[in-house]
Q: What sequence folds into this?
């Protein structure tokens, strides 16, 4: 009886390996599902690129061509007059320089503040670490609309209203909350053996930060810097409130103020949109490799 039960168990379909035909069907199903997912992702990507494509073809399209053929058709000839008129009419060089200075300064200062705060929380192991991290997490979830009036009063009383310095300080502090939360989670799992070896060699806290922590967290900081730059470049609300003069306006504020002016001229509006998108796109393409390297290293850790 025992031998019969063992033979039945050996030949039972639940324990037998799948037949080659079954394996082929499974592989075919996996390949079909992979192609479905790839098709959906490609479709979503095309939908996201479609507005950019519309801005590109209409920015270099003559106005009569737009009226005759519509916004989706390719231009019959390249016309740079709308882009040139917009660039010179709004002093776009000044707006572009303001955005580069503000975004670059915010990215650098916010990353530095994030590293110092995260070093104290993640490696220094200060008391109340969990509550401090919860406070930082709460800080970057507060909407800007709730902060705009206190920030307006603060910058006005300190003489920083309508200055790029005031906007840089505010945005750097606000964005460093997210950077501190992210870096603290990374430094909280930092190998203690490395830190102990550095202390045994006589390294001070600053030397540990500069010679040990900084080189190992550089990819993560590069990711944060890229995010901070693009977020600041696209920020509209706070610069709109705190930078009312035309000389201090950023690209996003200038485009928002000019959208009503160019509503009757869609080619000029497309040229303005293209001029505002291209710098951030170029910055992203330049740092794409650094961004992906940092994301991959973070995933491996």
A:
């Amino acid at each position: 009886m025992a031998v019969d039960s063992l033979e039945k168990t050996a030949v039972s379909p639940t324990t037998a390996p799948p037949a080659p035909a079954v394996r082929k069907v499974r592989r075919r199903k996996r390949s079909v599902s992979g192609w479905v997912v790839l098709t959906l992702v490609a479709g979503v990507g095309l939908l996201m690129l479609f507005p950019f494509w519309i801005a590109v073809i209409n920015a270099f399209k003559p106005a009569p061509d737009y009226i005759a053929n519509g916004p989706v058709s390719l231009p019959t000839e390249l016309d740079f007059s709308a882009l040139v008129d917009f660039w010179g009419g709004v002093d776009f060089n000044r707006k572009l320089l303001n955005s580069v200075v503000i975004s670059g300064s915010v990215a650098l200062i916010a990353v530095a503040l994030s590293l110092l705060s995260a070093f104290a929380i993640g490696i220094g192991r200060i008391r109340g670490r969990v509550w401090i991290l919860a406070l930082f997490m709460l800080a970057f979830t507060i909407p800007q609309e709730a902060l705009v009036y206190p920030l307006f009063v603060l910058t006005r009383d300190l003489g920083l209203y309508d200055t790029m310095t005031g906007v840089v300080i505010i945005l750097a502090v606000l964005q460093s909350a997210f950077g501190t939360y992210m870096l603290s989670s990374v430094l909280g799992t930092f190998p203690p053996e490395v830190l102990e070896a550095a202390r045994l060699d006589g390294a001070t806290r600053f030397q540990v930060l500069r010679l040990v922590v900084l080189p190992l967290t550089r990819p993560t900081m590069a990711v944060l810097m890229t995010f901070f730059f693009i977020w600041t470049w696209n920020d509209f609300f706070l610069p709109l409130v705190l930078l009312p003069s035309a000389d201090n306006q950023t690209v996003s504020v200038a485009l928002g103020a000019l959208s009503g002016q160019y509503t009757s001229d869609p080619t000029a509006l497309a040229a303005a949109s293209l001029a505002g998108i291209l710098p951030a796109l170029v910055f992203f393409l330049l740092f794409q490799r650094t961004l992906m390297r940092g994301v991959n290293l973070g995933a491996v850790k």
